Target: UPF0125 protein E4L98_00430
Amino acid sequence: MAAELINIQVCYASDAVQFLRALQVPAGTTIEQALALSGVQQAVPGLDLSALQAGIYAKKKPLDTVLREHDRIELYRPLIADPKHARRRRKAAVAD
Model:
């Protein structure tokens, strides 16, 4: 009997590139395995997966998380600016 397949998506976005790939993977596949199967590293030159965090639908998850049907794996880049400082600067600019 063939292994059950589940449908997932892998996505990554930066200011220069957008990557979205739908995949069918065997049930029991982890985030780490799905990233390897997706080809995101080959499609996005210079992408260092070890420097990024991953999550499913905006919730950070460890790479050993087992995927479920219709999960969307998202790769998160480090923040360039602290959101709290950005809000303070905008508020100060409006007050002046």
Notes: The first helix runs from residue 31 to 38.
